[in-house]
Amino acid sequence: MKLSSIAPLAIALTATAQASYINYTTVTGYFLQDEASTDASTFDYTTTNFGLINRTYPSDNPDNDNNLLTQWERFHHHITTLNHLSPPTISYKVLFLGRHGEGYHNAAESYYGTPAWNCYYSLLTGNSTTTWSDADLTPSGIQQAQIAHSFWSHQIASQRIHTPDSYFVSPLLRALRTANITFSDLPLQPSSSSPFTPVIKEFFRESVTLHTCDHRHNATYIHSLFPEWTFEKGFREEDGMWDGVRAESNGAQDVRSKVALDEVFAGDDDDDDGVGMFVSVTSHSGEIASLLRVIGHREFGLRTGAVLPVLVRGEIVGDALEPTGTGTRWETSAHCTAPPVTSVSSGCVCASSAVPVTTPLVTFAG
């Protein structure tokens, strides 16, 4: 008998040794966000029941009064049934992909303009009024996380939604803050950690660019802010991925996103009963875009603070496949050494005295 709490895919993966490969697909027909007709730029998860489509499921029991069950209760039962009926090599999980609320780096990019931000200001640690290295949330970002908290609270009370069984969060400060505001003090599932204690996972971080907002604090500092939270096994004290010079390509990011997703599906971050069927990942726009590519979901941009649920099917298929992104994995990019002359949609123009370089500019702007 296949029980959702035993993580059968992890058992099957162990049985087939290191040569196995998990193939991911998005199972469509359950969320509005899966449909091409849904406009990501105007979609609001708080007014659409997280986008869950009002429909019947093959697992609905006609002998019971389904009117007594909410859409989310019937959906949870359906996912449980899918897992129960599938072979050990297949597993279904619902990923709640949450983007962090607005950070000071987002506000700075809006202020300076994207071209100037990318070629100069993003390489600084901040300006005379604020810091955006490993950016914290702005007041607006805090409010966005509070909206998510209120909506989860409403869904728990009105829809009796099955809250995530496991929680993962990027190690960058804006994601840590968002997760804490969103999920603390909610009546979570008994199967999840209570109080809220997510796993901090390195590979769920934002795309690693030259920008200082992508340079995380060390583990000691993170622990001082959230002492009860758990670091994944092998989490390093210092950030070994960011150097202020190179940026990872989309292919390279997709490789590490798949590694993180493989660990979630295989239950590597839990020593007991696996991660469960409903999984929360609080992350970033670039990383969520990467995860969507890995699972074959259509492109769906999230506004700061938004949440995207996706039903994912993971299947162990044959021998290990050659990973993508093994070509040019990291890239350098020339940038101005002084504020640019112009910042327009067509690009950034450096001052004649500011010869572009490829070395870090980790200093404060005046």
Automatic annotation (TrEMBL):
Residues 1-19 form the signal peptide. Gene3D superfamilies: Phosphoglycerate mutase-like. PANTHER family: ANCHORED PROTEIN, PUTATIVE (AFU_ORTHOLOGUE AFUA_1G10590)-RELATED (PTHR48100:SF32), BROAD-SPECIFICITY PHOSPHATASE YOR283W-RELATED (PTHR48100). One of its GO terms (cellular component) is cytoplasm. This is GPI anchored protein. CDD domains: HP_PGM_like. Keywords: Signal. One of its GO terms (molecular function) is phosphatase activity.
